[in-house]
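Appendix C reproduces, verbatim, an entry submitted by the partner laboratory led by Prof. M.T., so that reviewers can inspect both the input and the predicted structure.
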Amino acid sequence: MSTPPSSAGTSGEHAVERFAPTSGRVTGTIGIAICLLLVVLAVLGAGVSAPVAGIAAVLGVLAWATMLKPRLRIVGDRLVLVNSFETVTVPLAGITSVLVQQVLVVVVGGRKFTSPAAGRSWRQAAKKPRSTRDLAMSPVPGEGLQTDAKVVYADFVEQRIGERANEERGNRGIARRSPEQEALLAEVTRTPAWLEIGLLAVTVVVSVVAFLV
């Protein structure tokens, strides 16, 4: 079986490699459609009360932020975690361990950063319980990715990030778990998703007002 696909941009310092979200797409889309329908019916005066429409608007924003928005990609020498209400950018060379269970967890400088964009089902996670504390970076440089037919997409994401982390650490000449690698925690950036934060705040306020009026 060929390695599960990811989308890569042009080669170079800012090459982009995107990983497909692993779950929540169908549920999120259906949820948003239902919420939007309730809001439209309320606006048209078709039997849906303002409080119900307000709650639907809040749930619609949450469905978008938590199920459809999260993305995971590698941009140059950075791992970018586009999460519900913030975007976290992590230097690949600083990653000491990577794990995909219900969510993706990467550890940099002793701190964990998560993304719901990649994950395993509860059944898959129960069959493969692990901890980032015990996870050695895999594969080691030169081994390449597994192409066994039993590999699932979560394994591919885990392996690919591990491989790229090893490559970038080698490019910088940094030893794993060295003080130099730990110091890369300072290069982690967190950018709030002001659009989603603002939409959630507005819909919550509108919902509360609808209940009080």
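The chain has two domains: 21-69+193-213, 70-192. Additional entries are available on request from the coordinating office.
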